Amino acid sequence: MSALTIFPAGQPDQGRSFREFADIADRLRDLGVQFERWQAEQAFGADADSDTVLSAYQASINQLKRQYGFQSVDVISLNAEHPNKEALRQKFLSEHTHSDFEVRFFVEGKGLFYLHVEDQVHAVLCERGDLISVPANTRHWFDMGEHPHFKCIRLFTTEDGWVAEFTGDRIAERFPTLDQYLTTL
């Protein structure tokens, strides 16, 4: 189940949580974040490649391309057996921004986005079927957990929009990891 917890940026133990989808979407809309529930009914084997995933969701991708003018689409997928899972996790755990508007559609598994906007941090637990946008230049980080399991379709309006610009702020180290967050729900 999707969830949102809003923390004061300096108080990672003082969050207020929301579990109803409409409440989550309303609060994120105030930040300019699109949070929607899409159909994610395709099942994939562990060896499904990007082309297989993109082909299965081509209609949804085409809809998003028409709606937002996206030019770049890829699939990011990780599971607990991936040999570089810890290195990849550490990379995304550092606060960063993208110069481009980013959309992720979770077609399998889950992950935890943290959006750092002004003096608040919004932890958004995304699961299969969730579509979330991150506005350009929004400070954020992502935790896939110690045992990652997710497949996401990522869309950007430019070919290199996915390139992360790290802020150097170590704020992510003070907030719960995905595994810790799940124990609070």
Helical percent range?
10-25%
Q: Radius of gyration, rounded?
A: 15 Å
Q: What's the average pLDDT?
A: 93
The counted number of beta strands is 11
Number of continuous helical runs: 5
CA(first)-CA(last) distance: 10 Å
Portion in beta strands: 35-45%
Low-confidence stretches: none
Q: What does the overall shape look like?
A: globular
The profile of the biggest β sheet is: 9 strands, antiparallel
Structural class: alpha+beta
Order of helices and strands: EEHEHHEHEEEEEEEH
Write a brief structural summary.
This protein has 185 residues and is an alpha+beta fold. Helices cover 23% and strands 36% of the residues. Strands 1, 2, 3, 4, 6, 7, 8, 9 and 10 form a 9-stranded antiparallel β-sheet that branches. A two-stranded antiparallel ribbon has the order 5-11.
Written description of the protein model:
The protein has helices at 21-29, 50-56, 58-68, 85-92, 178-184, and strands at residues 3-8, 16-18, 35-37, 72-79, 96-97, 102-117, 120-127, 130-134, 139-143, 149-156, 165-166. The protein is an alpha+beta fold. Strands 1, 2, 3, 4, 6, 7, 8, 9 and 10 form a nine-stranded antiparallel beta sheet that branches. Strands 5-11 form a two-stranded antiparallel ribbon. It is globular and about 45 Å long. The relative contact order is 0.24.
